Amino acid sequence: MELQSPERSRHLGAITDLFAKNFSNYGEEFDYGSDGYFEGAPYDWEASRIGLVDGEVATHFGVWDFTMRIGSAKARVAGIGAVTTQRALSGRGLMTSTAADCVDSLRSAGYDMSLLFGLQTYYLRFGYVATFPEYTFSVSTRDVVPADPPVAFELFDGNYADFADQYNRENEGVTGTFVRPSFTTNRRPGKWHGYTFDGGYLITDRKDDVLGVADCAGPSDRVLDVARQLAVREVEPTIEFTFLPRRSLMGEYLQTITHTCSAKFVRNGGPMIKIVNLGSLMEKLSPELSRRLAAGPLASYTGRLAIGGDGERVTLVIRNGAVVAVDPGGDASSPDAPADGSITAGPAIARLVIGDDDSHRICRQAGITVEGDAQHLLPVLFPNEEPSTILWDRF
Fold first, then answer.
1. Chain centre to alpha carbon of residue 341
2. CB within 8 A of 31, min separation 6: which ones?
3. Which of 51, 143, 279, 394 is buried most, with the most CB atoms less than 10 Å from its CB?
4. Residue 191 per-residue DSSP state
């Protein structure tokens, strides 16, 4: 098998065909791949990988280029999707070779982290670890007080990238959200429907007795009133905000009214994350880490913190509560530049960085060793951020 980056002019049709054959309804998935998934999307043609057997596309391991927020910092994240093999060639290890080649190249491609939604039994071998649960808020239409007068709204049939500026303003600092625009078109026009109102928008779908809200922005009470009207119109008693971050404006608002919030953690098929360049990531995180230090009990701290994980080590140089440098390598026992504390982890260092749970709990679960001043720095630098990636941005 020959491994290479796909070429748009030569391979788009073959990739789309392979994707459509292996995922659900062929016609629907082919249309989706042609407009909204590979095209009209941040698909990275250079970083993605295909495997060619006898000149035909046998495997595909796709990369989507996103910028993810971690607090006020922004990391470049390789979203992995459309992982598929020709059925007649499955079981021969072709995908394992394709995936390994792609993942190994993500660092040189300029990525800091990688995120996917897949099987732990498969992706653990590449250094991915399971991360945040998927939050879903459910609201009964009976518990929503109607606006008086009702909020006027209309169907939207334009460019979804028009919503990017408002979305970015509202989600600045919400860990796990992506900087928009990500997908620019209505990715599934038969499924997703956009609506606008004075001051905001929402994107919905319908399934059984539920009106699902995949994305929204604007005054939360007005978003909810439009969702209520749509649900009542379709005789759907429940409104669901799927994968909504608890710290988003809408997530915070829903926590003040009658609701059910589920934090679904699935062992297979849930989000998994991997750091591919610890040094570049810590450089980008330095202002956010400094902000956290300045706002906490260690605002005047000075020292060196060694951080190791998944084969990499860096040392944060902290002076008067600010991260002033990120040194490559470093160890608590180094005679030349000893650290005052150390965090030693494997791939689970990614969980601390994204803050998917209480930091001490992550350390207990993943066997992360914390020594010296790191005992005090850990919860300040790596707090629980309750991250989530909104459904509209899933890849």
1. 30
2. none
3. 51
4. T
Give the full edge-to-edge strand order of the sheet including 312-319.
322-328, 312-319, 303-309, 341-344, 369-372
Do strands 303-309 and 341-344 pair parallel, antiparallel, or not at all (unpaired)? parallel
Q: Of 370, 368, 375, whose CA–CA distance to 310 is shortest?
A: 368
pTM, full prediction: 0.94
User: What confidence category does residue 126 fall into, taking pLDDT thresholds of 50, 70 and 90?
Assistant: very high
Domains and their CATH numbers in the chain: 2-131+267-273 (3.40.630.30), 134-264 (3.40.630.30), 277-381 (3.30.1050.10)
Residues 6+ apart with CB under 8 A from 238: 138, 139, 140, 141, 209, 210, 211, 231
Interatomic CA distance for residues 160 and 152, integer angstroms: 20
Helix (H/G/I), strand (E/B), else coil: 379: helix
Angle of helix 278-294 relative to helix 374-381, nearest 10 degrees, comes to 90
What are the tens digits of pLDDT across the range 313-329?
999 999 999 999 999 87
